Amino acid sequence: MKNLVTCFLPVQKGLDLDATIQNLKDSGVVGKIILVGETDLDFDNPMIELINPGGYSSTKTLREFFGYITTPYTLLYTKSLPLGLGQNALHRLMLASESCNAGLVYSDYYEQKEGVLKPHPVIEYQDGSLRDDFDFGSLLLYRSEAFVEAVARMDEEFELAGLYDLRLKVSQNYKLVHLPELLYTEMELDTRKSGEKMFDYVDPRNRFKQIEMEKACTAHLKVVGAWLAPKFLQIAFSEGQFEYEASVIIPVRNRAKTIGDAIKSVLSQKVGFKFNLIIVDNFSTDGTTELISSYPDPDNRIVHVIPQRKDLGIGGCWNEAINHPKCGKFAIQLDSDDLYIDNTVVQQVVDSFYAQNCAMVVGSYQMVNFKLEEIPPGLIDHKEWTPDNGRNNALRINGLGAPRAFYTPVLREIQVPNVSYGEDYALGLAISRHYQIGRIYNPLYLCRRWDENSDSSLDIVKMNAHNFYKDKIRTLEFWARQRVNLVKD
Questions:
Q1: What's the CA gap between 136 and 456, in Å, rounded?
Q2: 330-333 and 404-407 as β-strands: parallel, antiparallel, unpaired?
Q3: 296 Cβ partners below 8 Å, 6+ apart?
Q4: Which of 148, 360, 408, 440 is the most exposed place for a label (fewest CB within 10 A)?
């Protein structure tokens, strides 16, 4: 057996490790196996040691690993469930690392879930892959020199963000490489749909973890020159001539079940200025078009737009609305599934633009089912946002919240990406590069979660496509912010 890899495995009492350990032995390259945690099993084997320094994701634990790394490679398995290595798996990972001096190599894998074995591809790492929930899989092969160098530079004590801090620091000096091969099998016990997992990062129970992650990400951005100081352009709100102070914008396609509720919630708004509703109907075929056309509108506030183009996503529909001559000074979002929580929302949003001198306002929303009954996690308020560091932390989180509203002249200058996922996030990043984003933390609308939501239940291929796009948007913004700082210097 070659002594090339030191492997660290998290362990828990009552869990069987025999199959995982045998797999590692059979690889022919693992020289030492370090079990991390508490176990009631007794191993009489010189290649196996047990340590219990604390949480597997803590800075303290990663530092303790130092004394056990004597091999060129360090393997971290992040689950305590059984691991099955594929043919020549570790050899393939090491070969990939050698080919480009990678600091970290990860691969696709098979997922054993509810008795079914399915391929689980993962995506390429980019400069903007700053999400702390980036899916590397559970098997991470580090070049030991990269691991040791990164841990040596850890100057913040984290309980939960240690592994996140580690990979950010490794990425500063080394490549993080994805090998698109199915190299191992892991068990997956989280059987929730994609639409249920997507709000984990705003769950109040995870707040402490999120604070740690923000600290790690902020420190990383400062090191790589992508952190922006809290200095913003001021807005006079006098650009352009607008007939309306505000427009609520609803892009819609085939939402006959919900569009009536949305329209009613807009037209019932009580405001001290002139506003309208622009509905961009993207060639609906289920009766939505007829419902909009026949909706009572005694004040002529509904602008029903049917685009000439047939290649528009949600973002393209937004461009039709914001470039319409009847679009107001402020463009306020409402999804066709949802409705405002009361008749004060539009006034609150417009007031916030002036009070906070911002080019974009983001509110909060209440999660409900189709019957408008509250469901977990309840209120989504994104209170992780801070005026000073919010735009930097925005590069880490997967969304800024809703409903969103924009100062129309700024939005017309940027234009909206013609996509149907992530267009709002792209706008938030681009706007926050120069302008402050305002916040409203009380709930402004009811967000329906039901089977017809576009993200309610996505397969892994679609989820990867969404995540890759958002990472690409982050990467472009990451580079843009580095350029901003270079110009300043």
A1: 23
A2: antiparallel
A3: none
A4: 148
pLDDT at 417: 98
**For 296-334, what is each residue's pLDDT tens digit?**
999 999 999 999 999 999 999 999 999 999 999 999 999
Q: Collect all residues with Cβ–Cβ distance below 8 Å to 152 and sequence separation of at least 6.
A: none
* Nearest of 151, 20, 168, 173 to residue 7 by alpha carbon: 20
Given this structure, which CATH class describes domain 5-191? alpha beta
Angle value at C-alpha 143, between 141 and 149, nearest 5 degrees:
125
> Are 248 and 335 spatial neighbours (Cβ–Cβ below 8 Å)?
no
What's the pLDDT score for residue 194? 45
| Distance between CA atoms of residues 159 and 165, nearest Å | 11
Taking the C-alpha atoms of residue 253 and residue 314, their distance in angstroms, rounded to an integer, is 9
Indicate where the chain has its CATH 3.90.550.10 domain(s): 5-191, 246-462+474-488
Q: Which residues have C-beta within 8 Å of that of residue 128, sequence separation ≥ 6?
A: 395, 471, 472, 473, 474, 475, 476, 477, 478
Predicted local confidence at residue 192, as pLDDT: 40
On whether the CB atoms of residues 371 and 320 are closer than 8 A, the answer is no
Residue 186 parent element (H or E): strand 176-187
Model confidence, pTM: 0.91
Tokens 């129970």 locate to 205
Note the pLDDT of residue 166: 98
Q: How much is the CA Rg of the chain, to the nearest whole Å?
A: 25
Predicted local confidence at residue 197, as pLDDT: 45
Q: What token pair was written down for 59?
A: 């800075």
Among residues 209, 438, 432, 246, the alpha carbon closest in space to that of 326 is found at 246
Give the chain's residues under pLDDT 50.
191-192, 194-195, 197-201, 455
Query: CATH for 246-462+474-488, among 3.90.550.10, 2.120.10.30, 3.30.230.10, 3.30.70.930?
Result: 3.90.550.10
Phi, psi (5° rounding) for residue 292? -65, -45
